[in-house]
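LOG
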Amino acid sequence: MDPDELPEDINLLFEGIDGAEAESFILSVQRTARKEGKSRDNEWIIDLVSSSLTGDALRWYVELDEDTQNDWKLLRKAILQQYPKHSKPSTASLQPTIPTPAAAANPPNTISLIQPIQASNSTYRIRVYFDITPSDYYLSTNDDKHVCLTKNVERALSVCWTPETELQLIENGVKTQRMIGLIWTVAIEDRHNPSSTTDVALFFLSDPLGNVPSITSHSGRVQMTRWSVDKDGWLQSYSDLEPAPIQNQFYTKAGGAEGSFTRVCLIPGIARWGLQIFQFFTMKLESI
């Protein structure tokens, strides 16, 4: 495939800044390939990747052997090895701010580089977006342990957050030890593998002591999720699987529904669980 034949709305770029950019780039490539129906087309993906490299990443790429250059699985592994998880940025990080509802900008279609932002003592609601369009839904709870959607702003969860920490609930104006976490389950055929990449999880709320509630439908590992906000304001969370973290993809009933539970799926397992594009959502913090 000629790179000039790529759809016009695909605009990926990888400079080789650090491990976070490498992870985001790989996830963006996989998301783009899935969107274009090319997730199993190695040649298409390789053409996309090779036309998206610049700077240090491009100089490194041209020195690779042809087998690695022409095989997405090998190239993906090589990128993560060259730019490991905790590598430091080679350029100065941006210092974005969390957008308010009135000033929210239209985000790009690709996953953005995770950047540290200024710590804040503000209180937020969590707004849900479908297909990067703000919906009328917020995260809420209807039984004090499951996290669900609501259009009632008065019932929306109030949270506080600082970079790379848990989202903690604000109740009656006071920060509590209650947090939003994930409890996982896996496909039957993957239960022998503790690091399955076809896992799905359910959002839950811990109790005031930080304990996990009893949820009989999900009995896997528990993750008290640490959250990041990227430079465009999107909330991101990752599951720590080797060789690198895998971004959690949030989903619910297609288009949302009052009281529908919120869940997570890892990118490699989306096809396994038969999920549809209209079930996926993204989130932003909105100042209260």
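LOG (cont.) second protein
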Amino acid sequence: MNGLPAEVLLATDGSPDAALATRVASDLCSRAGSALRVVHVGQDISDYVRHFEAPEEYAFLFADEARELLEREVRSIERRGCAVAEARLELGDPVEEIVDLAEDLENGLIVVGSRGLGPVELLVLGSVAEGVVHRAPCPVLVVRGGEGCWPPSEIVVGDDGSEEAARAGDLAARIGGLFGSEATLVRGLPRPPRRLDDARTREDEHRSGQKEALRRRASELARSLARPPRNVARVGDAAALILDEAGASRGTLIAVGRRGAGAGDRGRGAVTMPLLGSVSTKVLRAAPGPVLVYPQDA
């Protein structure tokens, strides 16, 4: 399937954010030929019913409402002309149930909605989207930004030289290729040291090497895109650089790896590169538009 996901797992809860994720997942599956699987995780109140000796009918009512919600979502997807390969109703913790189902995906991608309030301090920590991103065994596309966020007009890829960052870039480029998106490849460089001249020379050589590596990486991604990506290699915090390139546009898809590590930070005393492991969380919490996160062990 040319590097695109064979299966997409859409997690929905009937909210406006989930409705946007439904539109994105349907569109992506229709264009990529991916099988779409849908899950809704309803509230399991069986323990509550037993503990408070409430009528057992309460549990059945909650389950019926959850089933009706799932059926509405499936009908909505089918009206968009996209087939649903499987619809699952689960009861319990949303993060646990979604992650468990993702274990069975073949070359899979999870799509989930999120409000995305912008500044880091305004995002509610512990959200379902963030929990799924941190625990998922496959890449996760967190959808936010309203109707204007999809299809993405631009792709911004955070690159630190790690395998997971490379895979995030590959998948993002292939998604962008479906829509003719522009692309920008971003790499943060270490700050110049206040050291002796020979050390500064080695630092300059290292930074020059990183810029050349970024150019090679851009050439690789260009194969999936309508136009070659721009290269941005600057000194500074990686998350800030990525978010700065994305700007305030909700139609920009950001792609990063999770727990990424460049080769330069493994040796004692070596020049370190900004790690995208922590960057992925910062970007996820602050980005105004959709974010694609690719885990290290996928």
